[in-house]
User: Fold DUF1918 domain-containing protein from Crossiella cryophila.
Amino acid sequence: MRASVGDQLTVHGRIVGNGNRVLEVVEVLGADGTPPYRVRTADGHESIMTPGPDCIVRPRTER
Assistant:
């Protein structure tokens, strides 16, 4: 997985009733666009994450 600043990560809910989470990549901490990433939620909370197989990247240019 590779992402750039400004891309969106969509994390699919794994439990019935939990929807998808959309996160914005604000910093790439790995080499050459690889994880981990500093991400921001819609409410402004920031955290560092390494996405799993239930996550997809939507580049800025697709939105």
User: Anything to note?
Assistant: Strands lie at 8-11, 21-28, 37-40, 46-49, 55-58. The mean pLDDT is 92. DSSP finds no helices and five strands in the chain. The longest strand covers residues 21-28.
